[in-house]
Write a structure and sequence with these properties.
mainly beta, six-stranded mixed beta sheet, 4 helices, 39% strand, globular, binds CU-O-CU linkage, lignin degradation, copper, CuRO_2_LCC, Laccase
Amino acid sequence: GITRQYKFNIRLQNVTRLCQTKTILTVNGKFPGPRIIAREGDRVEIKVVNLVPNNVSMHWHGVRQLRSGWADGPAYITQCPIQTGQTYVYNFTITGQRGTLWWHAHISWLRATLYGPLIVLPKRNVPYPFAKPHKEVPILFGEWWNANTEAVINQSFVTGAGPNVSDAYTINGLPGPLYNICSPNETFKLKVKPGKTYLLRLINAALNDELFFRISNHSLTVVEADAAYVKPFRTEILVIGPGQTTNVLLRTKPNPPGNSSFLMAARPYFTGMGTFDNSTVAGILQYGIGNPSPKNLPVPILPPINATAFVANFSSKFRSLANSQFPANVPQTVQKRFFFTVGLGTNPCPKNQTCRGPTNTTKFTASMNNVSFILPTTALLQSYFTRRTNGVFTTNFPTTPLVQFNYTGTPPNNTMVMNGTKVVVLNFNTTVEVVLQDTSILGAESHPLHLHGYNFYVVGLGSGNFDPNKDPAKFNLVDPVERNTVSVPSGGWAAIRFQADNPGVWFMHCHFDVHLSWGLKMAWLVLDGKLPKQKLPPPPSDLPTC
Ligand code: C2O
């Protein structure tokens, strides 16, 4: 492989959306941010310069970071933030992956505007396992707030209530014709030629919403998810959770009449009990020339907002390609088993404060196994590497929930969770199985769970309470989908497996930023192996300090 160098200047930029101009954080003045392109096997060096008042940190979502945990980026997990005026060079090699990934800021809610595609092409002269597309187009879904997103999440911390929802969904940063927009440039347009195949690289960069997506009068063929090939399948409607990426082939019509145009649209799949942005972003798929008027085009019909059965059926269609060239290395046996609940909970309202949580004496929070994770004031990986862990974290993250109950039935009377900075220690190469169980502590809700540093295999998905006596017999250990983000079904469970072959500290969290902020997160500490090539190298000299 070769080395690809990028420079990311984090700087302020004025941007107009929904008829209002706002100053946002950008990379190099672009929104969405620039595209990173590399081939499998290449080394990527991104020099990030912080030219804004905020602390920043960048994450290369889905990149395995084999023995390069110092470049992973979640603030206070693998590194201290890059402070104003400081620079940090992220340096990693892309190993054993090809497909669509993305990058985003990984501190507070700054990823609302700091995100972009990270495209990994196959090695030179290695073809795709599908026909070569005429063109490749990244399509990023996002969320736009007229307000400052830092103020939005900070207000939620103060009141204990859910944060204000976004004002629009976006496609490649544009809200489209179904919103109040003041310029036709606020609509994403994909110009296509008849009878060709396009590879659409779909990325859900929205903060708090899973999305349905459809293009009127066109079906799509799914070929890849989270930078791992899947057995191709056709669908009219897609579901994509925040953090997930999906590559689809779009075959354009051979003989569309005249200057045909069609709308594409995305809107949320939502199962929680709070408020959400129930609006639709649309873009235009345009054959031919001219400026089609989107007002006359039919909006694609999408499932109802809480179509959980539709989502379950869609999720069940994903299978690893699992052929001789791209085998599925599913751990067939498991050395460590975990059962983690994922869901909301409450914290007491501080005495001198007025709260608007589930009750006025409580604040909303979120937890795994009833532990709401508190970020330390220094980075876990630095503290582990320098053996200064006292007062930073403890290694007693529970292997089963602290509070036992019927997870999807009647909620418990006590919804309080404990706060802590707890990790699970794994020996190098341990084979791990985690059952992630949604809880109905404060309403059942789907959670897109993301693991850093690994891809995992989704060996099982189910509704209701996981049954350790019956469900494992139905696990798919042959061709389960390989992902970095799985949607734990609303009122259901997901079982994942991975092998801990990457030493370091690896974050696992809900990719809804509101739940991430509320503590639905934990970390794995994977110890070094015995051989030199099984150890995490020392940190780069420019690693930020806290
Ligand atoms: Cu896409 Cu921890 O992040």
